Amino acid sequence: MDYKNVYVISTPVVNENLCILRDKNTDTMGVKCATRQITNVLLYEASKNLPQVEIEVETPLMKFKAKSIDKSLRVIISPILRAGLVFTDSASDMLPRAEIRHIGMYRDEKTLKPVWYYNKLPEKFENPKKTYVYLTDPMLATGNSLLETIRMYEGKGLNVSHIRCVCLIAAPEGIKNIKTYYPEIEIFTAAIDQGLNENGYILPGLGDAGDRIFNTVK
Ligand code: URA
Description:
With 218 residues, the chain is α/β, with parallel strands linked by helices. It has a single domain, classed as Rossmann fold (3-Layer(aba) Sandwich), CATH 3.40.50. Helices cover 30% and strands 30% of the residues. The protein has six helices and 13 strands. The strands form three sheets. Strands 1, 4, 5, 6, 7, 8, 9, 10 and 11 form a nine-stranded mixed sheet that branches. Strand 9, helix 4 and strand 10 form a beta-alpha-beta unit. The model has no long low-confidence stretch (mean pLDDT 94). Uracil binds next to helix 6.
């Protein structure tokens, strides 16, 4: 399996929090705290592609030239509802100028294909070269929702090399699916798991991410 352009961020802090998150006995508060630690690290890594410019900063002692994110960039975070929302607090803190553009898709339980119900993408991109997009979906399972979203952005003229997928856990099947159509897409994840079960759930995974995060397991 070709994992080119797939970055597994496997640090001690990420791994410890992933164990907490996967544990079926972890309560909602524990799930939220562990998730937040991981989303911070993943977004920090994924956003390393943002171009910087030199700006002048005046400290209480002197003026000097320093690097900072280019303010003329358009940065978009697209959480795939509902579980993708779990990235938005980290993203808004880390990239406060970013636009949060929600994608509403659910998985048809029989076909496992994504069904659109909400799309907050802009009509078109005035300056695609200056636009950077991070698609957030905690579980890269079949990859169909992410694929649909990438297609939608590409159809609006966005450069695919400016789109990055950020996921807590990825399945080999989902990575393969995305790579078949978009080999250049970069994926950031905390783990690549064994694979999918017959219902499209990632094994060992963590169960239904939306249910675990939003406390709707029962
Ligand atoms: N969505 C989830 O929430 N969990 C999985 O394992 C796969 C898809």
